Amino acid sequence: LTVSIDRPQYMEVQLHVKGYIRSDVVFNPGEISFGMVREGQPSQLTIDVDYAGRSDWSIEGVQAGDRYLQGKVELVSRGAGRVKYRLTAALDGSAPAGLLQSELVILTNDRNLKRVPVRVNANVQADVAVSPQMVALGELKPGQAVKQVVVVRGYQ
Question: What are the tens digits of pLDDT across the range 109-128?
Fold first, then answer.
């Protein structure tokens, strides 16, 4: 991957990226998307984790990327080289307003790749939102009128 930078002077930097695509672990749906969540309100979502391969494969735990996010797993079925878990993600009421982009990491007994991340996102909405958050009027002369549009949005 080549990144070009133009300031303070032009240069190119080469980044080397490695990845490992797992086809044996599938999240359904592919990410945890809470959508719009009211600030202060907890929310919970469940997705399925399907594995095809070793019959002794298991999820040993879940780590959250943020303090207001928790995850837990429950074994649903096991047999014929397939394992199914249900992953429950909980967003508590302390999540700050704004866009949340985080992840839960399932911890497995797989010798090759013990950590498998799943993306988590939410749009946490405050009860009252003002846009723009800051208004700049510039330099004004005495008696000069300035018109600025400010949108105040509230939820009940």
Answer: 998 889 999 999 999 988 88
Q: What does the buried/exposed string (b/e) look like for 45-71 if buried means 16 or more CB atoms within 10 Å of the residue's CB? A: bebebebeeeeebbbeebebebebbbb
pLDDT at 132: 86
- Residue-wise pLDDT tens digits, 44-68: 999 999 999 888 999 999 999 899 9
Structure confidence by residue, pLDDT tens digits, 17-50 = 887 677 889 999 999 999 999 998 999 999 999 9
CA 123 to chain centre: 10
Cβ-defined contacts of 82-85 (< 8 Å, 24+): 82/50, 82/51, 82/52, 83/50, 83/51, 83/55, 83/57, 83/58, 84/48, 84/49, 84/50, 84/51, 85/48, 85/49, 85/51, 85/59
Closest by alpha carbon to 36, among 152, 104, 129?
A: 129
DSSP 8-state symbol, 81: T
